[in-house]
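TA notes. Do not distribute before section.
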Amino acid sequence: MPYRNMSLDDFARYVGLDAREVQKLADRGKLPGQKVGGEWRFNQARVTEWLQQEMPSLDESRLVTLERAMGGGADDGSMIVTDLIGLEGIDSAMRANTKGSVLRELVKLAERTGLLYDPEGLLAALEAREEMCSTGLQHGVAIPHPRQPMSYVSAEPLVCVARTSRGIGFGSPYGELSRLFFLICCHDDRHHLRVLARLMRILTPDTIEAVMAVDSREKLLKALIEKETQVVEAVR
């Protein structure tokens, strides 16, 4: 389905904000829209890209609001990110020393899940996304993902996790080296944005420290599951 243009009210509903707040933000040039015939219009593809880049700066309440707006509600238990992570999709000692080798190893990791249709297509999409803007975040985390969700690369949505023994220059705008990587591969914009928002809520400094300290894939996944349970329960 082609991406459509949204009105100001459509945009407000899409991101879970009050239309009056959206109007103020748009008038201040804070949103990815343009005026057509005196009315604000927002392209959904551009909105998705904007949300991906803005996500790290959102606080907990805004992340919860965004999860709910993307469908199903952030507190209804219908989406659990750690359900998308299998042990076969975790590498607690990934061998990589450059950004390019990280992306290649993450694709290989996704292949091990048996869910990946198109490794070459996924790698190309990850590289294109990184060329646009690094997915490196604070606290040594990076979350590589395609610029736009693609249903043809995998049979089901998946998340893979990998650690490296030393920091890698991933182009983080925060000037930090990256050691913990989450590959996201979803099939539609809403699910992709919900997964990304949930990960932002899970990956607190304490959780990152715990994940980096464990000595097995099982313990790594357990630490993530425990934190996700906490963030889901916190808003019920």
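Switch to the second chain here.
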Amino acid sequence: MEPLSFTSDRVFLDRGRLYTISACPGKRIYGERLFTLSGTEYREWDSRRSKLAAYLTVGGKQFPFRKDSKVLYLGASSGTTPSHVADICPDGKVYCVEFAQRMFRDLVGTCETRPNMMPILGDATRPEEYSMFTDGVDVVYQDVAQKMQAKILCDNMDTFDADYGMVAVKARSEDVTASPESVFKEAEKVLRERGFSILDDEPLDPFEKAHAMIVVKRD
């Protein structure tokens, strides 16, 4: 098992499968495989259930998360991918924003087992409504399937003064009539106009159809 050289020392690749070092040994979130090697417990990170894992699996090369990163996660759902981000940032904090109340209840349960995760019931299009929970973050990660995905990322990065951002753009949520490629290009245009440099843009096929992960840095 070898760490991915361009990520942190808490993400590993073994025979084509990703793993994170578990911050809460013995705790599963979505039935994932756990195993222990040399006294360290690892959690399998399923690329079919996580767009961030899919991004790494298809060859993404930008990974702004560090052990002490403060991360704002938009569209946290029940906490599957945020729990792996919490593994990667054990000395940091993952602020998990979710709008749907049913998913939020599951998210609260996930956060109860991981003290560096904070559940926030909120609307990602209104960052001012949850800005009181932190005075700033290092990374904004967005997985919100609705229109104006690039704008939502920019608004949150500006509100929380984040240097890095990642957005999983779902083309069909922006425009069902446009080609995915044109949607991704338009998202990049918005990001550049708002003062961010594009560090990477990777389609997530075959794991997620008509999706791309865009990684940005503040100019």
